[in-house]
Amino acid sequence: MNDKIEQLLIRGVVEINIKADLEKKLRFGKKLRIKLGIDPTGSDLHLGHLVALRKLAEFQKLGHQVVLLFGTFTGKIGDPTGKDKMRQPLTDAEINKNMQSYLEQAGKVLDISKTEVVKNGDWLAKMNFEDILKLAGSFTVSQMIQRDMFQERLKNNRDINMVEFFYPLMQGYDSVAIKADVELGGTDQLFNLMAGRKIQEAYGMTPQNIMTMSILEGTSGVEKMSKSLDNYIGVMESSKQIFGKTMSIPDHLMSKYFELLTDLSRHDIDQLLAGHPRDAKLQLAEEITTMLHDEKAAHKAREEFLNVFAQGGLPSDIAEMKLAQGEYPLLDLVIKSELCVSNSEARRKIGEGAVKIDDIKYNQLDEPILINDDPKVLQVGKRKFVKFVAE
Amino acid sequence: MNDKIEQLLIRGVVEINIKADLEKKLRFGKKLRIKLGIDPTGSDLHLGHLVALRKLAEFQKLGHQVVLLFGTFTGKIGDPTGKDKMRQPLTDAEINKNMQSYLEQAGKVLDISKTEVVKNGDWLAKMNFEDILKLAGSFTVSQMIQRDMFQERLKNNRDINMVEFFYPLMQGYDSVAIKADVELGGTDQLFNLMAGRKIQEAYGMTPQNIMTMSILEGTSGVEKMSKSLDNYIGVMESSKQIFGKTMSIPDHLMSKYFELLTDLSRHDIDQLLAGHPRDAKLQLAEEITTMLHDEKAAHKAREEFLNVFAQGGLPSDIAEMKLAQGEYPLLDLVIKSELCVSNSEARRKIGEGAVKIDDIKYNQLDEPILINDDPKVLQVGKRKFVKFVAE
């Protein structure tokens, strides 16, 4: 039990405010209410989102009450965190759709049946002017402007809309409403999380402990995983995609991925990393695929991957395309295959020697290829295939 | 009619935003809604308050609709204008009492039966969070911080509570709620008045015109008239007090008092000022006393004043004090008269030669004075009297 508390306080954690305080509560056996706020402005979860959700699952397994707070009200305003401009507000329908989708995906690591799910519209929408003035009164303007993002904006002569001052106020009040003992968030949420402490105190409550979590880099290895940078591994992707994308991460990220996304002990992780990088990465990919699908699917994805990339074999599910029997110039076939996004990419790929027919490389655009009853496999790059057969 | 519009736009007015615009509306004959906001944190009106009320009366006489807006909601927060700290909030009972008292006093220059009287608690208390965010969204933080008072505070490292940002927002929204065409205020209210324009525009309305009024200096001649500086002439004071206090203002203020507090034309004022200052001031005092009481009371106050101060006569209402028959040292009599605030003031006044018995100056502290059936009038300074008679 004590080991698990230590894990809880360390693994994937950047900072705890106040650590000694939280540790005392945990060791004392107090049942805590653990808050994670979700601004329902998007619905597709990726591995980056799972870092905090897995930490919630750790709390849950130790018997604490996890509270997923959907910012249904704040989502209508848009969190300005890290943005130059305010977000477009969402409609109620969009928010509800995103919530349902989020819960389905979070269910892959969290026991949703034991999770309290709340919406801040349920209390924020009911506040009147006097309530709001009391809330605003817990902050001074200087305290508000200290926020990094606001400082940055003022420095660059970009303005701050008054509405944006409300975001930390509302997020903080949410902690009052749900009586949070602990709030999780990314390091970029530090100001809002601290606002929760301040506002809970102003309302006569014990301030929550704050746990900021590591940021997960995306598959390209440098920037934070995000949908907009297209460096993400999506929670709902196929086992094959998840396995393959995990295999594509740079070696130096393996240690962090193991720590944040698997249950392997530090000792086991270190042993794996001491061996061949490819073996370690296969293990990582299998762990992650198992988490998001199951062992069987993970095993199959691994076999498949090894078949195609390690042994030079073909995947088992190549798409088939029918053509009228006859000879076609190579470029025509590549374009018809739709494996390239444009005609110019098709030309380039052929020029680069990245195009094979039945595992033989061709680099002439007008190379004549005969399509008949005998299937021909066209390969572009390492991972894209189409099988042509005569109609 | 045109002359009256010109008067309206000039007399006592510091600035109009936008003058050409307002003049056009007035000349076009549009019936306008004229707003004056009153923060009901005090109830004693003095001549300084009458400057704006008299301007409202001018609008009223031209057929426009005057709207007195009581900040019953804002009064609970306290307007931070020109204050280093926030005011203490008022109770509902205090606010209601102040409102009643205000209307009674304002009735001396304004026709209250034709005046629309409203309270901003009627709409502000009903706003919800979404309404308030919409309102806040009409301002950026930079625009808010531009306010002189906030700049001053930030410069001096005094903080601004978030609540204080709401005052201009609420005052501005009041102009939306009452559909104000014109708002009057002191020059120190300029930011809040301009907020009204901005917020009306944000709500799709034509922005109100703003009229800032001259600040009236108090009887001591330098600082703004105010109760706390004890340099005021109160609306509810006796005709004698009003007359006497007006006579005590420095000569250089006469022109401004005539302009802001009487209906005399500029031509008549200039003629008066070209004559003897004392005659001009008597006229001024009579005008002001007539406004606050009536012609008869003003005339009596003038007679009285001339009797005491100009002809060296005695006022008709000297307090009588009974003493046992016998001889008293002068100092004892002065102390018993309670015309001095302390024994040491009594000694000083006698030493200065400011003490007379029956119009004869005495400057010995132990001068024996016989009190018998024949009344003796003790005078300290110019205006304080007691009549002693034997019991």
Question: From the alpha-carbon coordinates, what is the Rg of chain A to the nearest angstrom?
Answer: 26 Å
Strand order of the largest sheet of chain A: 1-6-5-2-3-4
- How far the N terminus sits from the C terminus of chain A, by CA atoms, comes to 65 Å
Shape of chain A: elongated
**SS field, number of helical segments of chain A:** 17
Structural class of chain A: alpha/beta
Tell me the series of helices and strands of chain A, N- to C-terminal: HEHEHEHEHHHHHEHEHHHHHEEHHEEEEE
In the predicted model, the low-confidence regions of chain A spanning at least 5 consecutive residues are 79-84
Question: Would you count the extended β strands of chain A for me?
Answer: 13
Description:
The structure is a homodimer of 391-residue chains. Chain A is an alpha/beta fold. The first copy, chain A, has 17 helices and 13 strands. Chain A has a six-stranded mixed beta sheet, with helices on both faces. The first copy, chain A, has a five-stranded mixed beta sheet with strand order 7-13-12-9-10, with helices on one face. The first copy, chain A, has a two-stranded antiparallel ribbon with strand order 8-11. In chain A, a hairpin with a 3-residue loop joins strand 12 (376-380) and strand 13. The termini of chain A are far apart. At the A-B interface, helix 6 and helix 7 of A face helix 6 and helix 7 of B.
